[in-house]
Design a protein that fits this description.
This protein is an alpha+beta fold. About 35% of the residues lie in helices and about 15% in strands. It has two domains: about 35-135, Ubiquitin-like (UB roll) (Roll), CATH 3.10.20.30; about 140-150 and about 165-265, Alpha-helical ferredoxin (Fumarate Reductase Iron-sulfur Protein, Chain B, domain 2, Orthogonal Bundle). The chain is built from nine helices and seven strands, in the order αββαβββββααααααα. The strands form two sheets. The protein has a five-stranded mixed sheet. A two-stranded antiparallel ribbon has the order 6-7. β3 (about 95-100) and β4 (about 105) form a beta hairpin. The longest helix has 23 residues, at about 10-35. Bound molecules: iron/sulfur cluster, FE3-S4 cluster and FE2/S2 (inorganic) cluster (FES).
Length: about 270
Amino acid sequence: MAVDAPFEPDVQQEQAARLNAQKSAAATAAAAESGTVILKIRRYNPEVDDEPHWERYEVPTEPGDRLLDSLHHIKWQMDGSLTFRRSCAHGVCGSDAMRVNGVNRLACKILIKDLGDEVMIEPIKGLPVEKDLLVDMEPFFEAFRAVQPWLITEGNEPTRERLQSAEDRARFDDTTKCIMCAACTTSCPVFWNDGSYFGPAAIVAAHRFIFDSRDAGAEERLEILNDREGVWRCRTTFNCTDACPRGIQITKAIQEVKRALVFRRI
Ligand code: SF4
Ligand code: F3S
Ligand code: FES
């Protein structure tokens, strides 16, 4: 005689139901947190504007949105003429530095929820504005190139890689992290007043090679930075260190270059 199997709850179905309930609770919570933010953006189109002006956008937000998401919302849904640079969207390429509520930030690295209900966005300061948030980076790159940010070596090419101890590598580790976003240089009051100052980013690039035990160009670079527009213009304001999205101890690096110049010892 056939016997009915005892009733057993379908474990898989139960798990799926539990997962759905969790998802819908999360969606409800997210919907409750969704809102809007006011972005006030400094706009300038040299083809039609005599002066820059502010434009105001009310943008819907989701929890987890970054400033870059909101700028994309404006560009793709509200006003395609808004111009700004971005590429990686993950804090790596360094192309979306902008002045946010008066402080230089990367738009892809800040959450909208941390910026308040109204956010003021301007181009980084001290470089010529080409359009809206887009600046001409050439003066910045010119200073960068001037310090020769590449390995300078002497003698014959070695037949194997140039070895370096872990301690020697650690000496310049911090300054290898630079992504050339210009947030430091364009937050420096000395650079605002005199665009010929090399600026902290170029000094960081020089530091990375000056303190590399495999490099033979330290003297040359130190002389370049001994210029009247070089390291001595730094007033130890620390704006650069505060602005760096990579957390590089820029002011400390500048001090190390100054010390190397005074004592002529790396
Ligand atoms: Fe950007 Fe920091 Fe490099 Fe300056 S040092 S360019 S703030 S990553
Ligand atoms: Fe400027 Fe940084 Fe020196 S902000 S003054 S380069 S410490
Ligand atoms: Fe690349 Fe922000 S878009 S760092």
